[in-house]
Amino acid sequence: MRKLAVAAIALIVFVLFAFGPGIVYRPATLVHIEADRTGPSRRIIARDFRLKEYSREFTLSVKSGIDRSDFLVQLFDGSGTMLVQMSFKPQYNNSFPFNVGRGFAPGRYQLRVVEKGIVGRYSVSLYQGRLPDASPSQLLLVTLGVVISAGCYGYALRRSGGDRRAPGVRKARYVLGCLLFSFTMIVGYPLVHETGHAIALASFHRLDLRGCDFIGLHGEPHVSWTAGPDLPGWPGAIIGISGPMLPNIVGYLMFAFWLSPLGRRWLARSSARDVFWSGITACMLFAQVGAFAPMSGLVHDGDYSGYIGNIPIPHWQANAFLLLLSTVNAVIIYTIVKHLVKTHARKLPPAGEGIRRGSGQTV
Q1: Is residue 225 classed as helix, strand or coil in its secondary structure?
Q2: Per-residue pLDDT for 362 more than 50?
Q3: CATH class of this structure's domain 27-128
Q4: What's the distance, Cα to Cα, between the start and end of the chain in Å?
Q5: pTM of this structure
């Protein structure tokens, strides 16, 4: 009964910590713009608002169901100076905080939405302060799992007298390894992906680090642009493809080490190390295998839209390049999985034999 009560209290604390801020705190809505365009629209919608007190940051929430083109969101101060400009692609849904370094002083402001031939429905909302978001709960849950399982592993190891082969220690180590792998991918892949976009934006002098969230602590992972003209052609294509491309590059480098004699010797020292490195490598390359989905229109992907909509070469050539990468990645993943099955499946005990205890008994 005591264990059940402790588990219930822990669950309540976690729910309040993860979701409580969104229940007890709602920032003030400064502007809300909603439109539904049945034909190509190039309107400019402007909304004035007054900020009564200093605000360190604003939160912009965009829900875009448009089917064609994109639109700009611009923020001006009372003197008409543009503070922020952001471009949004079709089917974009996200909320994120931003600021201009010094925060926002009390006074008059204007939010503008610049339609660029869009068709469909969208809404734009501007909030004062940070909009609570429950999306970090996944990261928080896995982090708590890692901490708890690490404690369980240490406890099991202590009870077994330091015997790493004891059944309880092996089970705790397995759970800890799975959670560490999940944590690495939840943090690592978005970090590498968004870093790819950030490198491309920085090379064109358009990166705004103040509005970036590389791992999704405050919503969906994203990078932020500084105000300025559009970047069509090769710059826009490079910015669009740089996010998916950097995980591929990292995956190829990890696979090259995996193939090298030095890498094989290092990984052969530990089965867990081999599985962990191989799994991370495969996960870095796996996303590219599904490149055919946005090509066929089954799903919408903003990175693919930015790439294919700006690249100044025939689309079949651009798609052929992505399909070539997908094929290479699929072959690499098959090679890794085949190695894992061949190397580690034979280390499992035969069916019915069980796990041998130190006394020689089986279970």
Answers
A1: strand
A2: no
A3: mainly beta
A4: 29
A5: 0.63
